[in-house]
Each structure stands twice: as C-alpha cells, then as structure tokens.
Amino acid sequence: MIIGDEKFGIRELLESDKLFLVKWLNDPLILQYYEGRDNPHDTEMVNQNFYQQEDNVTCCIIEFEQKAIGYIQFYPLDSQEKK
Fold it and tell me: What tens digit of pLDDT does each residue of 6-55 get?
C-alpha cells in the first residue's frame, strides 16, 4: 500500500488487476473522460497501455473499502517539466 487506511487506499498495480481495468475501460461513463466512448479497451490494449509503462512510471489502483474503483499513475518530473 502506497497510502491509505481501512476505507481508502492507493496501491501499486498488480497483474491480477487486468480484468478490473478491462471492465472499467469498457464502461461508457469512464470512456467519456478517458480515450473516448468509441475506444473500449480489450486485454491487449490494457497490457500495452498499463503494463508496459516506462520504468519511471508508477501505476496504481485506487481502492475504497478494499474494492478497486479507479486508476492513477505518477512519475518524477524532469527539470524542464518543473518549469
């Protein structure tokens, strides 16, 4: 667990989260904010977009009451991005 308590938490992405991401990224309510409604993700797209990240990207699952509810990622900024 990166951060959290008994109700809310953020943890690193696991291989076992793949089916959650496929289901989540096929929800029209989610897709209207991420990638567009006409771009649902299958397992191959989830592998490519979430499991083949650069080494400096930390991919995470957001949980509420130990149930996955979302995705977040973070990475260090280089000096140009900090400006």
Answer: 899 999 999 999 999 999 888 888 888 877 667 778 899 899 888 887 77
CA 34 – CA 16 distance, rounded (Å): 22
- What are residue 63's DSSP bridge partners? 9, 68
Alpha-carbon distance of 70 to 2, in angstroms, equals 15
Per the structure block, which two tokens stand in for 26? 């096929």
76 Ramachandran zone, left/alpha/beta (phi>0; psi -120 to 50): beta
- Give Cα 41 to chain centroid, integer Å: 13
Name, in order, each residue with C-beta under 8 angstroms of 25's C-beta and a sequence gap of 6 or more: 31, 34, 35, 40, 41, 45, 46
